[in-house]
Design goal:
Layout (H helix, E strand, L loop, with lengths): L1 E8 L2 E8 H62 L4 E3 L5 E3 L5 E3 L3 E4 L2 E8 L5 E10 L19 E9 L4 E7 L9 E8 L5 E9 L4 E10 L18 H9 L11
Antiparallel strand pairs: 1-2, 3-7, 4-5, 6-7, 7-10, 8-9, 8-11, 11-12, 12-13
């Protein structure tokens, strides 16, 4: 399409033939160019927002990791500050109990048939539900895997204590028939801390040397046993509902009425 335009400037007349299609194409190109500019700016803004979001996410993850480390450190510090450590006492002339009674600083037989083993909590927290057992060892070779019979023939309990405070000392007693002197034995102390963590102290008393050997303290969390899964009975609708299901053909083939 062509249009003839006339223009008068300072008394002079100009005539020009204009192609409207070309003008439309130019206007469309200009609009497209402007749209590209706006789209480019929008993309840059979106990219900046994405980068900002990624940075914020990384910062949040770093804070979460730091918080987890702090929580682990706090838990470790709490465990350390409340950790019990019950050990057998040996060395020195005597130990004094809370009530003022004095005991020999090590296993002793104050009277025939009675073994007394003093223990002490040298940890920073209380020891709860303490149970002690002793096992007889070979009198000549306490580390022998096949010990010869001694005064203590079978493992037996040495006593149980509800709790021991920090730095508390107490004597555990066991009645052993015919015992006249302290034999070699293996002592096991099982207890737990205030968080429920279980601890085991194991030591071997070597009567020939008059001291404990192979002392070790280990800990572990109690094993949690999951309850057996409950047996679920299959759903069975009431007789009235079954009849309704049968009318609409909703019952399985093996439940269809005869």
């Amino acid at each position: 399409m062509h249009v003839i335009l006339g223009l008068t400037v300072l008394g002079l007349k100009f005539h020009e033939e204009v192609d409207l299609t070309a003008i439309g194409t130019l206007l469309l190109a200009a609009a497209t160019f402007l749209a590209l500019i706006f789209v480019s700016r929008s993309l840059k803004q979106t990219q900046a927002q994405i980068e900002l979001g990624q940075w914020q996410l990384a910062a949040t993850q770093e804070e979460i990791g730091f918080s987890r480390k702090e929580a682990c450190l706090s838990r470790t510090e709490a465990e350390v500050t409340h950790r019990p450590a019950v050990v057998p006492v040996a060395g020195g002339e005597h130990v004094t109990l809370a009530g003022g009674e004095e005991l020999p600083a090590g296993p002793a037989v104050p009277e025939r048939g009675l073994l007394v083993v003093p223990i002490m909590n040298i940890g920073l927290g209380p020891a709860l539900s303490l149970e002690a057992t002793i096992e007889g060892l070979d009198p000549l070779d306490p580390r022998s895997p096949d010990p010869r019979p001694g005064p203590i023939t079978d493992p037996q309990p040495l006593g149980a204590v509800t709790g021991m405070c920090m730095s508390e000392v107490m004597g555990l007693e066991a009645a052993i028939d015919g015992l006249g002197e302290v034999p070699s034995f293996k002592l096991t102390l099982a207890y737990r801390d205030i968080a429920g963590k279980e601890w085991h102290t194991v030591a071997t008393w070597v009567a020939e040397h008059g001291r404990y050997a192979d002392l070790s303290i280990r800990s572990h969390w109690p094993r949690v046993i999951d309850p057996p899964p409950r047996k679920r009975e299959a759903f069975r609708p009431s007789p009235e509902r079954e009849r309704e299901f049968a009318e609409f053909g909703l019952l399985p083939a093996d439940r269809q009425p005869a």
